[in-house]
């Protein structure tokens, strides 16, 4: 059973629809706008401890609505390697926003990961998003991992890794 209630999901839907304000949402879930980031991080930490996939989704919703900060990094890295939830694309989105060199190895693994729940995805959106995040980080190690992806047998991933390597080289942000 999830620690996130049906009423909390309904509040999230109302927030997305513009029926309530950010402040009303925060008050209803027991925090303030200023405390929303910390609330979301704690929710994600608790979700990891309990392997609560629904709470991961809700915590990531809060993070993406109110801000993903460096306080999210450790829990996002835990979630990147966890196979018990279905929010890997949202995890990549958070890691991409942070652009932390600490996330390079997790993003590399996610670029090549195959989860059963994504079997339908012939565009390999998770991998492509992870590759773009690696391109945005553009450290020497990120470039090395993009080069490693170039040798995989997935044409979509190889093409995207090549685009990122070209983009990095043309922007002179890294010595490729």
Mean pLDDT value = 95
How many beta strands in the DSSP annotation? 0
Give the count of helical stretches: 10
- The global form is elongated
Element pattern in H and E: HHHHHHHHHH
Radius of gyration: 17 Å
Helix content: 55-70%
The parts where pLDDT drops under 50 for at least 5 residues are none
Distance between the termini: 48 Å
Please summarize the sheet with the most strands: none
Keywords:
single chain, mainly alpha, elongated
Please provide a brief summary of the model.
With 176 residues, this protein is mainly α. The protein has 10 helices and no strands.
Task: Please provide a written account of the structure.
The protein has 176 residues and is mainly alpha-helical. Helices cover 66% and strands 0% of the residues. It contains ten helices and no strands. It is elongated.
Blueprint of the fold:
Blueprint: H1 6-16, H2 22-29, H3 36-50, H4 53-66, H5 73-80, H6 88-98, H7 104-112, H8 125-137, H9 140-149, H10 155-171
